[in-house]
Fold:
Amino acid sequence: MYFWPKVKNVQYTYQTQLKMNIPDNLKYTKDHEWVKMEGDTAVIGITDFAQGELGDIVFVEVDTVGEELDKEETFGSIEAVKTVSDLFMPVGGEVAEFNEELEDTPDIINKDPYGKGWIIKVKVSDKSEADGLMSAEEYKEHVDA
Structure:
């Protein structure tokens, strides 16, 4: 009887990790954004965990293209059937591009959050800011906490 909660928690954690896709080549934020550095450009989206928590994504709004934003500033919002969430800059820089495919098919984020479901590209002002983001292993620990 005393062992059931421990077994249940271990099973839940194991199943969660099996279902979650957390690529090792990306950096992550506590707010569930991911970052892929490509030279001076950061490609940014939300994690598989985040899209799973949000549910069916129906709208993505980014009206900050061309703006210089600091790390942790809001660059847009994402709307699911039941909620709206702000999107935060993992690194500071100029928002250079919005993934226009998301205008017509925002659910790409649900299907392919690390590929076709990217949200913005940023010309990074200080690449060292990315060094302070979580690794895949740290992010796994963060979502399991």
In short: Residues 4-19 form the longest helix (16 residues). The chain has one domain: 4-144.
